[in-house]
């Protein structure tokens, strides 16, 4: 969060401690405004609108919670950390119930304070980003697709390009990634956006009814067809038809779909006449259609007709910090449905979600948050509120296989070597996402940067003959940083 130089309001009546904390935070790049009383803090709160407040609990003219209540009364929703030399469980509970985000006791660990500030500012920034997404939803930049990872930025750019065309589109991706949302985004961004959008799951229609469902039928054309019925193509006329799980479509119907794509004509069951339709076809699948073509279960000519314009929706595990952003979105939506007030994720819950690979992708994340809100009785979602399968995977997203040690002890690796190797494996597993790597390693990002720099220096110290300089392989001690 230091990139935008957040402003921190520091309330501390101990002048020496106030100066120490102010200097430490300014070294981190924050702008710090200091106050020694509640009244002065309330004045600065109005004049400067800080991004975060760090307040002593006991002050000469009151306690820090009075400032928190003043901020809430003015409609300010900002991160709030309470510190005190008189920490008790009851005080911590009272502060958290009042709306404080964290409670720290003296003697204060500046490292701990930095981490808390960084986390809370990051969460507040995610909330602001989410509000921006919601404000523009369905209208412009986000296209209703939440995410800032480069894969999502690229996907939105491709959608805008494809929306200009009238050609069929093949949307590929794992189950739960949001393929239908992508299809709706294409429809809304196209000239057909004011027309109908019809979505059908090909796997959910019995094979014997598929032709009738898609193309319609005449009265009496088969047993039970008492009256004529329009098909899905006719319903989507002037708009877009999404054929979800197109890999499940029988080959006989694949041939008729190909004719619709080529000729723009459909023939209802029991009719002798073809009817024109003006429909754009979008197809979605989680299957490897090219493999299905090789195996003979999917028509090659239809595949290449669809594949001309294709999109791949990334899996959630490939999207890095988007997990946080989506979790905040689903948390807000679930809180609204359950008529709950403001809810937030605890630091451990956020880390638990980041560590879990989500094989069910965005759909599974939404389900996990829905469960968490259902079982959360306070205002903070804790790990116990998340599904058991998510909790059990915490911290084990990376499981490097240890190499067996031989009998020759002199060939055993040093602790520094093992640490270097593990850091490399973690970075590879999370696609060089430093924030997630730091969470898995249990360190902050500054330590990670120094470790990575040490690794790079160690690699450069290896000469052409493969010899290492032992002094260059030592990694900084994580206990002594900052």
TrEMBL record:
Residues 145-374 form the Sigma-54 factor interaction domain. Residues 459-482 are annotated as: Disordered. Residues 7-121 form the Response regulatory domain. The keyword Ribonucleoprotein does not apply. The keyword Transcription applies. Keywords: ATP-binding, Nucleotide-binding, Phosphoprotein, Transcription, Transcription regulation. Coiled coil: none annotated. One of its GO terms (molecular function) is sequence-specific DNA binding. Pfam families: AAA_lid_14 (PF25601), HTH_8 (PF02954), Response_reg (PF00072), Sigma54_activat (PF00158). SUPFAM superfamilies: CheY-like (SSF52172), Homeodomain-like (SSF46689), P-loop containing nucleoside triphosphate hydrolases (SSF52540). Gene3D superfamilies: 1.10.8.60, 3.40.50.2300, Homeodomain-like (1.10.10.60), P-loop containing nucleotide triphosphate hydrolases (3.40.50.300). One of its GO terms (biological process) is phosphorelay signal transduction system. InterPro entries: AAA+_ATPase, AAA_lid_NorR, CheY-like_superfamily, Homeodomain-like_sf, HTH_Fis, P-loop_NTPase, Sig_transdc_resp-reg_receiver, Sigma_54_int. It comes from the Bacteria. The modification 4-aspartylphosphate is found at residue 56. This is Sigma-54-dependent Fis family transcriptional regulator. The lineage of its organism: Bacteria, Pseudomonadati, Pseudomonadota, Gammaproteobacteria, Pseudomonadales.
